[in-house]
Amino acid sequence: MEDISNVEVIAPNFKRRLSGVTSTIIQLVPVQRALGQKIATLGPGLPTGLPRIGYCALLRLWGRPRSRSLRVWHARRNVEMLPAIVLRDVLRMKLKIVFTSASQRKHSGWTKFLIRRMDAVIATSNRTAAYLDVPSTTIMHGIDTQRFFPAADKAAAKAALGLPADRKIAGCFGRVRHQKGTDLFVDSMIGLLPQRPDWIAVVAGRATAAHVSFETELKEKVARAGLADRILFVGEHTNIPDWYRALDLFVAPQRWEGFGLTPLEAMATQVPVVATDVGAFSELLVTGQDETGILIAANALTEMAEAAGVFMDDAERARRAGERGLARAREVFSIQGEASRIGAIYEKLLSDTVCG
């Protein structure tokens, strides 16, 4: 446990199950600490290696940290905004509250009420910012290029995972469910692969209990198409960067997404991307002359198959898109850049002498 007197920023995580928000905290906090930000986490569902404080430490928030007049509480969910408001406004503890919004839909009245009481608001994309009724700063998520980087030897990367080294591979990674568009990817591959014997497809990700039947139906459809040995369901893996490095094409087929890191992860591993126009995907990809990928409408199976076919059939175009994607991921979307921009928000609030 961290000594609360040394902690200037608290990053709560009040959800036990792994989610995109939890993953963001897990990836960001070590980078923030490396940049000198005195941040610690609070709550369940986080790795033991992260700096953390216990709930008892909250009793000491009436006091100040060693070198500041107040602390920052960085919420990412309603359930994390509300207690911070109580601590600051009811108990008069020395806090400023930051909220990061990734939602791309109209907020409920309750959420708007909470957001209006924030001291600073961060939007994860310009599209997200458009749904906010308060001033915000757009800071897009970054990618850890120490984890996600191109394969030095693509064939070896495939062989290391038990995949055929002599085949090209299209991949779709993430939770297996209707919202994520896994069925669209599978259907597009069922249409494309019979005419492209040098390609196979991989679906990596877990189907939770509510979506097991959805996954089972997809596997049965693949089997009926005679492609069970070419459209592979490999489940969830902790070494997901290794799976990206084995790919020659990545497809992000989501019907809806809050932000969506998978296209960035593919770009950072020098893989061309086909993505639906949801979440922040239109702000991640570059289309047209300096193409890093192809953007298509959501829920558009024909467009998805056509776009994937373009990269499958034009190796040079796919190579150029992959190289540009890698450069863009490194130059624009590093996780260090994200952490630094968030740190600037913290610093502005920490330097404020007025609290509550």
TrEMBL record:
UniProt keyword list: Glycosyltransferase, Transferase
Residue spans crossing the bilayer: none
One Pfam entry name: Glycos_transf_1
Database matches in InterPro entries: Glyco_trans_1
Sequence ranges assigned to domain Glycosyl transferase family in this UniProt record: 154-325
Family statement drawn from the similarity comment of this UniProt entry: Belongs to the glycosyltransferase group 1 family. Glycosyltransferase 4 subfamily.
Protein name: Glycosyltransferase family 4 protein
Species this protein is from: Rhizobium herbae
